[in-house]
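User: Hi! I have a protein structure encoded as tokens and I'd like to know what sequence might fold into it. I'm fairly new to this, so please keep things simple.
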């Protein structure tokens, strides 16, 4: 997978309960526009740079078709009536072929069409080319406050990696638990106590 080395502070308290149902309220939604994304990150004490660099996590992973279907308008018979005009037409055609109007819940699309299993700066290049999968990806390209950062990370993997390391550590400190009755320090990072 690759990616930068991130020196994480140790000793943080992990929660005692982990529920998938808690995740949506703790992540920005893919249809968010730039204003909503910035406001969401600022509420967590994060900056615009943190928003853009952490969006680089989309360089790996997959998405369900339902997470980006808002970028297409289908007729009742499943014909594409329109697509997000910011999306590269050839890329949009590929997505519609894989994700018709009523896709299977198990249909997955890679977030990064260039290097889907490598943590690199290809995500930023994809977004610049109109190959951002989510509406939120395109939102970063279309706003001057975020577009310049997107361009910088597309041009320099070293800058992306250095910025990622800083922002990832900062993210790990969001909503940090300090009450020992609310969490515990893992004796092994990959195992619950």
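Assistant: Happy to help. Inverse folding works backwards from shape to sequence: for each of the 193 positions I chose a residue that suits the local structure. Here it is:
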């Amino acid at each position: 997978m690759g990616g930068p080395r991130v020196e994480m502070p140790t000793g943080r308290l992990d929660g005692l309960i982990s529920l998938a149902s808690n995740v949506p309220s703790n992540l920005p939604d893919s249809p968010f526009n730039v204003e909503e994304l910035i406001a969401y990150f600022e509420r967590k004490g994060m900056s615009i740079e943190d928003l853009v660099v952490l969006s680089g996590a989309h360089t790996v992973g997959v998405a369900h078709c339902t997470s980006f279907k808002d970028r297409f308008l289908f007729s009742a018979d499943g014909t594409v009536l329109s697509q997000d005009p910011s999306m590269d037409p050839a890329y949009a055609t590929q997505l519609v072929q894989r994700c018709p109007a009523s896709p299977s819940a198990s249909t997955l699309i890679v977030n990064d069409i260039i290097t889907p299993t490598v943590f690199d700066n290809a995500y930023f290049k994809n977004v610049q080319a109109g190959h951002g999968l989510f509406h939120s990806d395109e939102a970063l390209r279309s706003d001057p406050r975020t577009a310049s950062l997107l361009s910088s990370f597309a041009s320099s993997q070293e800058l992306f990696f250095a910025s990622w390391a800083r922002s990832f550590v900062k993210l790990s400190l969001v909503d940090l638990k300090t009450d020992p009755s609310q969490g515990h320090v893992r004796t092994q990072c990959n195992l619950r106590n």
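A useful reference point when you look it over: The beta strands are 14-15, 62-64, 72-74, 80-83, 108-110, 183-184. Feel free to ask if any position seems puzzling.
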